[in-house]
């Protein structure tokens, strides 16, 4: 299919290029800006497989238009800038060197980085850096249910939602999966209290006071009943729970290992070059 589309485009550009400078039967030019030409071969890989003929033509036309605009701008830039202003050899060299070093360091990390992080290491980092895990928002663990107020299982679900027994929690999840409009049991992770409130038909002006004085919430609005059992909470500016920071700490430790690995590699290479007298200061 792609060959057919490309052949169709090729035919169009051949017909349109036959009487123009730069024409070559095997690779005709399809656009020119001053002394620069765009050839059919330049767009050979432009059209993805499965693209319709109409979309292919539009894609190629857009590419050609952009090429022309860029070439016009490039011509004016070349014309108006001084030789010194157009000399990017130093920048290009620095950029190339940075890319090569980055690729080498990336391969080194992929081959040598120890990604196994034990729970003990995460806990040690957490307790040594507690001041870095201060909460910016109030967070909660909670059971949340939105259910039709005329549901035949409403009473049972209210009963299950208020208890902490695992047997009742399992029954709650089973019944909610069948009868609830929306529900979530957040007893291992945490969410912000703001995110929870957004799902409820209520406003809370003093979250700290509300959390201290309410553990079970039942609201009714628009034929729906909303249930919330706040299992646990942490107030803003207190220390975030370890479970909330677990993945964050794991990423921090991995990043520290990467930096150490790169630093050790750099020092090793430097020492080897120094010992072999591969460089000297003048």
Strand content: 15-25%
The Cα radius of gyration reads 33 Å
List how many beta strands DSSP finds: 6
Q: Which CATH architecture of the largest domain?
A: Roll
Question: Your description of this structure?
Answer:
By secondary structure, this protein is an alpha+beta fold. The chain folds into 3 domains: 2-80, no CATH class; 94-132 and 239-275, no CATH class; 135-234, Chitinase A, domain 3. Helices cover 52% and strands 17% of the residues. It is built from 9 helices and 6 strands. Strands 4-3-6-5 form a 4-stranded antiparallel beta sheet. A hairpin with a 2-residue loop joins strand 5 and strand 6 (224-234). The protein is extended, with a radius of gyration of 33 Å.
Give the SSE layout.
Elements: H1 2-17, E1 29-33, E2 36-39, H2 53-80, H3 89-112, H4 119-128, E3 139-148, H5 154-162, H6 166-179, E4 180-192, H7 193-197, H8 207-213, E5 216-221, E6 224-234, H9 242-275
Antiparallel strand pairs: 1-2, 3-4, 3-6, 5-6
């Amino acid at each position: 299919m792609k060959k057919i589309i490309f052949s169709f485009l090729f035919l169009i550009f051949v017909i349109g290029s036959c009487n123009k400078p730069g024409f070559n039967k095997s690779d005709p030019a399809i656009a020119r800006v001053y002394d620069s030409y765009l050839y059919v071969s330049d767009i050979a890989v432009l059209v993805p497989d499965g693209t319709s003929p109409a979309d292919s033509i539009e894609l190629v036309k857009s590419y050609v238009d952009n090429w022309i605009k860029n070439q016009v701008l490039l011509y004016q830039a070349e014309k108006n800038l001084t030789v010194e202003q157009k000399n990017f050899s130093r920048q290009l060299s620095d950029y190339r060197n940075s890319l090569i070093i980055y690729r080498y360091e990336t391969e080194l990390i992929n081959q040598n980085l120890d990604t196994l992080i034990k729970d003990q290491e995460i806990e040690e980092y957490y307790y040594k850096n507690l001041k870095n895990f201060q909460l910016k928002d109030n967070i909660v663990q909670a059971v949340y249910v939105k259910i039709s107020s005329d549901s035949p299982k409403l009473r049972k679900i209210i009963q299950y939602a208020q208890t902490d027994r695992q047997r009742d929690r399992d029954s709650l999840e089973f019944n909610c999966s069948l009868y609830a409009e929306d529900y979530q049991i957040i007893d291992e992770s945490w969410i912000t209290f703001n995110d929870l409130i957004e799902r409820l038909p209520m406003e809370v002006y003093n979250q700290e006071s509300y959390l201290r004085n309410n553990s079970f919430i039942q609201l009714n609005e628009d034929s729906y009943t909303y249930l919330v059992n706040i299992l646990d909470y942490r107030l803003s500016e207190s220390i975030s729970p370890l479970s909330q920071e677990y993945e964050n700490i794991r990423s921090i430790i991995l990043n520290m290992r990467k930096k150490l690995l790169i630093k050790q590699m750099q020092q090793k290479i430097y020492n080897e070059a120094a010992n072999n007298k591969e460089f000297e200061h003048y």
